[in-house]
Amino acid sequence: MTISRRVFVKSGGLALVSLGLDPLFLARAAFALGRPAVRPSDRPILVCLFQRGAVDGLNMIVPHGEPAYYQERPRIAIPAGDVVDLDGHFGLHPSLAPLRELWDNKSLAAIHAIGSPDATRSHFDAQDYMETGTPGVKSTADGWMNRYCEHDREHEDTPFRAVAFGPQLPRILAGSAPSLAIDDLQAFGLRLPQEAARDRLTRAFEELYDGAGTGLLASSSREGFEAVQMLKRADPTQYRPAAGVDYPAGRLGRTLLQIAQLIKADVGLEIAFADCSGWDTHVNQGSSDGQLAARLRELGVALAAFNRDLGERMRNVVVLTMSEFGRTIRENGNSGTDHGHATAMLALGGPVNGGRVLGRWPGLSVEQRFEGRDVAVTTDFRDLFGEILARHLGATDLGAVFPGYTPSPARFLGAIRG
Amino acid sequence: MPLFLVATVALLTAQAPGPPPSLTPRDSAFHALNRLAYGARPGEADSVARFGVMKWIERQLDADHVPDPRLPERERQFKILGYDRADLAGRYRNAVRERQRMQRDAAATGDSMRAPFDPGVGPMREFRELGGELQQLAIVRAALSERQLREVMVDFWTNHFNVFVGKGADRFLLPSYIEETIRPRSLGRFEDLLIATAESPAMLFYLDNAQSVAPGSAPPPPRRALFGRRFGMNEMPEERRRRPTGINENYARELLELHTLGVDGGYTQQDIIEVARIFTGWSIEPPERGAGFVFRDWAHDRGTKHVFGVTFQDDGKGEGIRLLKLLANQHATMHHVSAKLCARFVADEPPDGCVDAAVAAWQKTRGDIRAVLRAIFTSPDFWSTQAVRSKVKTPLEFVVSAVRAIGVEPDSTPRLAQLVARLGEPLYQQPAPTGYAESEAHWVNSGALLARMNAAIALAQDCASIPAIDDHAQLVDVVDHQLFAGTMSAHTKSVILAQLSDVTDPLQARALAVGLALGGPDFQKQ
């Protein structure tokens, strides 16, 4: 067991000096070095929603111009009359109609036939690959978002630079750069009615963890206490969404509201990540109505509310949806779909080069499919993630973020305005 | 010394594995209680040390013979144990119908936007409450049972063979899954457990095998109307639901990847399809017939299948049983499951030694779980200084060990279960078939640690078993002895003492000392 002993010089909530033995702890401590300040409201922000369970890209962004789509899905295809047409060939699922205006004002793009070069149809593996950013390599310990934070230190470091909403830190943010998991912003920190008692206990726990425990316990707790201090100044209990904005009830709406809140509080958020589950539609997935329609409706309403709530601030925010793989082209025997290959993603926000369906469409005929059954991948997800990191967040070292792969500008889809 | 004596001495030394001399008997007992049990109750490290730690481990392995007189009385307070699967199925069917009626009404009044966002309110409330009972029951058993190792193994297998309670019919299938499938076999043979989970309605529904039928097959006409309507996801209007017409690979894939061979177990997509064909017809009776296992002959794929070189001729249900027995004792399975057991009991990244010992015991006994565990507990890796106090507790382990340490009797309300949920591990509610993770990296992050500190403060309000002593140094010693069996670090002691310096009320001092101790870094470790 490694015991780290730490000496703190507190200055603005950041530790300046530390001594330790644990490599992860040391790497995290190195982040405490000073950074050039960026005006908080000018900071580019990336918000990622992971649709865990593999969303059916074909019913989310519907290729209504393809006869094969209707032939293969007699029970679950979205009737052409219900599709919210985008470009004559593709259209939105009717539940995503609230996003239509973003398409019209060119701040929403859809990316089709995107996915992993690895053929796995295991949720676990495919999510892991999408989060580590190293398809086919299971031994990668950290996530690509964390590696980005580790290698691009141009930004002012705050505990809120990378935040995952949920009880646990997801794989995508695991690693040596500090990142925060927040289940509920309002309840973040110690919960005691009297402020004096709260502050006292906070200091006591801070001291307990400062001097003891392994590297990960010590560094995680320090990040937590710094965040508590900053949030106290930002006072999230006073937050009200913009006039007329109504987030849907449920976890996704609540999460997006809290992300909007953190963005407006200017606490230095650069990357926000949240899960959004319920997409594994093996049975009775439905068509214009039904299971998938209900999940997409919640997504569409929540994203539209988020966009309206942030208003002008969306000028430097990109929201990206992602999912581990797509689903079979042909519906299965249970009016559902099984695990497939390529899927679709959505990108929205001011910096997005919207109003277009991006990516090369491979077609749905049998010889165009992957292994004869699934939508083929024509865009490696690392090319999209890489483009957003480089052109939106300003990443300079994509090779370090995606080891073993060099996203090349030649393969960028043009999702971000030049 | 005669040669045979040297040999005997060497043999005896080799056959008497256990804690090394560097660990005191009390430290050894505390370590065993942290791993084979949900932590030590007041004084328990000393009593186990007196009894002999290896002897205590043997008793825990022989769970059926450990008297557990008080638990049945507490279990009787949980009404969920009074319902069988058929009762729950009937109640669930009524609740679903009621909800559908409400949804139709909502659609008719144009209020359908809201309906999907609030599943589980209204008619489903009873199942919410029963779900809460089931969670709390797990905590009461973990805290109070004398058969601690069995409770630890129930939690292990519940995660290994994870079923998500929130998926449709699993709301009412999960109780019998835990009570009848997992619990009686948690210290039995792996093969029996594997077969039982494969036949369990909960797993058949969760991983969709209940809906997997041979392409082109059809039920005999009188039953056609029944099949496929009862076990839909119930999200679709009645008229859109159809009976299934093809195979579903979901169970087959997770069976190979998670339950047996492991993700690197050397199987192919074609193997998955063949396995899915073997399990066609393994399904569930409709709720009005008790929702039990049924093998549907008409739905079974009668063709020949090949799974990694082994041929399966048409043999109905027998094919699946044969395959499960084959899988249960593959080398990849033994290694995968043994490594997971070692990650639970020894270290997140277990050394090869204990894994190899577990695999050898598995091979020798054809998967006797007790023999595999005994091999782990007698392995030097289990007792090494790298292993002792090196693992971070999961939220369940944290809460239950705190309750045990401060000597609180958990009540039957879902309070503690909700606490475990707030710390990130709502029991039976992991949607992914992986179950909850075991590793430190998964559970330690800044938000989760703050949540644990809050939980510690709340739990410390109820610590009457610790005397409220005026003398602070003495108080800290008592807390150290009772919560840590004397292993509290000097740093923790000094910080707690300093915090107590201006506290005059002995009750307040006790709550503060216990809260800091439970929420501090030492207690996060086991």
Explain the overall architecture.
The complex is a heterodimer of chains A (418) and B (526). With 418 residues, chain A is α/β, with parallel strands linked by helices. Chain A has one domain (44-184, 246-411): Alkaline Phosphatase, subunit A, CATH 3.40.720.10. Chain A is built from twelve helices and 14 strands. Chain A has helices at 23-30, 57-60, 67-72, 100-104, 123-132, 144-151, 195-211, 215-234, 251-264, 291-310, 381-393, 398-401, and strands spanning 10-11, 14-15, 45-52, 61-62, 84-85, 91-92, 108-115, 162-165, 180-182, 271-277, 317-322, 343-348, 357-358, 379-380. In chain A, helix 1 (23-30) packs parallel to helix 8, helix 7 (195-211) runs antiparallel to helix 8 (215-234) and helix 9 runs parallel beside helix 10. Chain A starts with 9 loop residues before the first strand and ends in a 17-residue tail after the last helix. Residues 1-36 of chain A have low confidence and may be disordered. With 526 residues, chain B is an all-alpha fold. Among the domains of chain B are: 20-58, no CATH class; 189-346 and 349-388, no CATH class; 395-524, no CATH class. Helices cover 54% and strands 2% of the residues of chain B. Chain B contains 26 helices and four strands. In chain B, the strands form two sheets. A two-stranded antiparallel sheet of chain B has the order 1-2. In chain B, strands 3-4 form a two-stranded antiparallel ribbon. In chain B, a hairpin with a 2-residue loop joins strand 3 (305-307) and strand 4. The radius of gyration of chain B is 26 Å and the shape is globular.
